Task: inverse folding
């Protein structure tokens, strides 16, 4: 049974206090009465989150929290006291973040990106010192691999991101064509893993020609809608292209180049047109 994670458990017995759920190693945990689904029977399986209640006893819940152990999430500070802060993670018992895990003291109402871990006392806790909880090994990613990205913080080069709740990636400013903010989770792609240092660059669009096919269809759809012509071509400014199609000039040029090779369009002085 994994503390701080979603577990698939089997109903062992149903009692007045709730339902006792059993893991494969025969550990049991109580699902309180108010959460027991109607008609639940011995032998049924449930997906539950296991955490510690106010008395530090393991308890199960059908609620899905905003963060699990080993993950990163942006949570709201609900309260503070003289030993730390308490974060709203979607469960009745708030998640504790000690002062030692706060690079800067947080305030009530503040949104903070944290990792969740098990502390030395065996309790679930949050940490805003994210570097301590990231995977330091060299990642086995390949260019074009789809990944989940969490926007972490801005740098001079762009935005640091957290890839698949494990590694740090850099989203370069030149590859950013939509507004982003800290804490935002969105799909992305691996741009490259540098051989010299193992650092990872990421993109929001699939690198190379992976972006061309859907963009090419978008251009064709636009041409059909506008009578077969478009006022943009490979000489147009990046701002004009971004305003109309929401992509970089490089991606646009690759797309119209592909359409040109297929004989679908002609590139003219003042734009492109369908053949």
Result:
């Amino acid at each position: 049974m994994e503390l701080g994670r979603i577990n698939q458990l089997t109903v062992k017995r149903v009692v007045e206090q709730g339902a006792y759920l059993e893991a494969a190693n025969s550990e049991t945990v109580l699902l309180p009465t108010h959460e027991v689904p109607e008609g639940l029977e011995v032998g049924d399986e449930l997906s539950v989150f296991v955490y510690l209640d106010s008395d530090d006893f393991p308890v199960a819940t059908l609620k899905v929290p905003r963060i699990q152990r080993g993950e990163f999430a942006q949570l709201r500070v609900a309260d503070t006291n003289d030993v730390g802060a308490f974060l709203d993670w979607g469960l009745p018992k708030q998640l504790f973040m000690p002062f030692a895990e706060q690079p800067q003291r947080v305030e009530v109402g503040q949104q903070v990106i944290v990792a969740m871990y098990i502390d030395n006392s065996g309790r679930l806790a949050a940490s805003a010192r994210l570097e301590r909880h990231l995977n330091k090994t060299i990642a086995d990613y390949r260019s074009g691999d789809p990944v989940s990205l969490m926007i972490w913080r801005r740098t001079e080069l762009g935005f640091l991101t957290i890839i698949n709740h494990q590694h740090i990636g850099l989203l370069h400013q030149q590859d950013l064509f939509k507004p982003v903010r800290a804490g935002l989770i969105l799909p992305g792609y691996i741009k490259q893993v540098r051989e010299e240092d193992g650092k990872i660059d990421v993109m929001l669009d699939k690198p190379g020609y992976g972006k061309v096919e859907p963009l090419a269809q978008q251009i064709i759809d636009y041409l059909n809608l506008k009578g077969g012509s478009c006022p943009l071509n490979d000489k147009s400014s990046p701002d004009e292209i971004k305003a109309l199609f929401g992509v970089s000039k490089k991606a646009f040029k690759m797309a119209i180049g592909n359409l040109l090779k297929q004989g679908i369009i002609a590139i003219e002085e003042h734009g492109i047109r369908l053949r």
Summary: Residues 72-132 form a domain with the OB fold (Dihydrolipoamide Acetyltransferase, E2P) fold (CATH 2.40.50.140). The longest strand covers residues 6-15. The first helix runs from residue 212 to 225.
